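Appendix B, record 7
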Amino acid sequence: MAAHTLCIFLLIVHLPLVGGLAVDTISGDPVQFPETEQCRERGATLQHTLTGGSSQAVARLEDVWKPAAGYKDRMSPNESVVLNRSNINDQGLYGLTCGSEEKRIHLNVITSSEKSVPEGQAAGFTFHYFTAGELGRYRVERNTQLVFELDLSSGSTSQGSGFENRTSVAPHWRSDGDLTLTLQGVKPEDRGDYFLYVLKDRKRGHLQAVRMRVSPAVNTPEERNPDQITCTPQPPCKETLWIPLSITAALVLVALGVVCRQRICRSHVSPGGGRSLTEEESQPITDPRVPEENGHASSA
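Structure tokens (predicted):
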């Protein structure tokens, strides 16, 4: 894969320093050494200068840049030297030997903080520095682009494109050293990695990084969609109070019906325990006559 396809993931600051360039990256992110892409001299090498003056080979250019021992798990053959993930031990000075030319690259590996800010809200980037009698410039950059700059000597400020009239520091910064930057009206395009530092004598100091994400705006009641259905808790309906009353009344009526039926039934029972006769049952039984035959009645 071509090295330039990784550039969107890299946070590289090309800042001319005495004796070389500076490259910044956040720990854990990929990092590219851009000067290696311009070198096409076969046999070129990239060396990392370690503490104590010794050096360690990082990569060598053959047809493409190939990783040296110790970097094969973090680098693939490529048109430039790209470490797939950086760590704090990668920080330091690197020497690129390309033919007869030698270049120096200083890599800064920075541990960043993270924040998430709702769209439309203000974001604060905390930064403190000793400002009493100090010269130099306080700078804030996002993805290598200027956001805000303050001249610590004159107090004059400048703002980057897209950040006009949205950035500021506290007016008492000179007396208390509070250079916290406030960014008003955060937009989705403001997301990214912010680097804060003081530039003095072409050297950067107190380098800090903040990775900011922009979350969806929090809607206020006035901003809600009028078509949106909202559920508001309602007090218990008074009609529901009749339900238990109705059930109680029905049970009472059933109980009364049972009692009345029992009393009616008892009224038909004689004192001796036998059932009282009805009117039809109390009529005397008569002996039925057998029809006469030839004028004489037959007896049974």
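Remarks on this record: Helices lie at 35-38, 173-176, 242-267. The domain at 113-218 is CATH 2.60.40.10 (Immunoglobulin-like).
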